[in-house]
Fold this sequence. Notes:
The chain is an alpha/beta fold and 382 residues long. The protein has two domains: 21-143, Nucleotidyltransferase, domain 5, CATH 3.30.420.40; 146-358, Nucleotidyltransferase, domain 5 (2-Layer Sandwich). Helix content is 44%, strand content 21%. The chain contains 15 helices and 13 strands. The strands form three sheets. Strands 8-9-7-6-10-11 form a six-stranded mixed β-sheet. The protein is globular. The relative contact order is 0.12.
Amino acid sequence: MKKNILRILAMMSLFFCITAFADEANYSIVVDAGSSGTRMHLFKYTTEEKIPLISNVFSEAIEPGLSSYETPEEAAFSLKKLFDDVAQVVKQNNIDPKRVAVILYGTGGMRLLSSAKQDAIYAEVKKYIENNYAFPIQDIQTITGEMEGVYDWLDINYLKNTFQKGEPTVGAIDMGGASTQIVFATHDHTQAGDEINLTINGVVYTVYSKSFIGLGQEKARQSMSTYPLASACNISGYIPNVNSAFDFSTCNKIYTQILADYQSQFKLIPFVAGQKFIAYSGVNYVYRFLDVSGANKQNLEERIHVVCNQTWDLMQANYPDVNRKYMANYCSNAAYLDRLLYEEYHLQDGQLEVDDKIDKEEIDWPLGKMVYDLLLKQQRGG
Length: 382
C-alpha cells in the first residue's frame, strides 16, 4: 500500500512538473544596457527554417543606463523591475526559467567607462541575477560599436524580410546618446577592420559597420556646450537670464567644428550613393518632433526654421504633451543631424527613411543579436 502511494505521489509530481513548464519552445532574454537607459527583451525562437523564426514576447525599458549610477551595487539593483517583470511573464506562460538564458550587453555609455568600472558593474549585475532569479547567464559584457552596428543591420533587414525574399538590403543609422553607428552591405573590401562577412540564406554579405564613440547626440551636445557661441543652439528664453536665441547657421557651424576631428574617419566610409538607409532612435525622435515629411536636407532645414525660431514659452504652449527635458534639445540635435547625415555621410534625396518601427515591430539591435547567434549556430551544425 505504501509503495502504491509513493508511486502515485511520484506520478503526480511528474505530472505537475510537466504541466508547470509545458512550453518547450526556445527562449532568451537579451538586455540592451545603453547610455541613457536599459531595455530588456524576451524572445521566443525556432531554428527549424533557413532563416530563424523569432518573436518578441516581452519588452520593457527603464532609465537611466547602468553607466549612470554612482556604485556598481546601485547599477545592478536598477535592473530589479525589469527582471521582476520578465520573471512574471515567464511564470504566466509556463516557461521554465532555467531554460531562459540571459545576455546583457553594454553599449556606448559603458564603453566610455574604464575596464575596471565596467568589470565591477558586471560583477554586481551577475551576482544580483544569480541571487534573485533562476535564469542562467549566457553572457555579460560590453560589445564594440561595430558589433552593435552589425546587430542593427541584421535587425532591420530581418524585420523587412530582405533576407527571406532575396531583396537588396537596407543600411542602418543608429543615433544613441554616447555613440552613433552607420552600417550597410557593400562591395568594398578595403576596410577590413570595419567589415564582416555574413552568410545568410546562401548569400554572402560584406557588411561595413562603423561606430563613432563621442558622436552620440548627448555627447555631441556636451561638446557643443563648451563653445563660446553655444547659446545659438538654445531656444530663445529656455535658460532664464541668459541672452540666447536659436540660430541654425551658427549652431550648425559649431557642430561642423566638432565633426572636423573625425574627418579622417569619415573619408574612409565606402561609397553610399544609391544605398537605402533607415535611421532610428535619436534621429527618429528629432524628425518626429519637427514633423519632417520626407527625410532629406531641404525638408529638415525648413522645419528647423519653422519650429526652432519660436520662444521657449511658445514652444511649450504649442507642444504641451512633449517632455520638456527632451524638447529643449531637439533643435540642437536637429542642427547636428543636418550636418552629420547630409554633409559627412553625404546622403541624398530618397536614400533615407526615418522610423522607429517596421511592420509595428520596434527597431532595436537585440533582435539582430538573436539572428546573428542563431545563424552562427546553424552554420556550425548546432
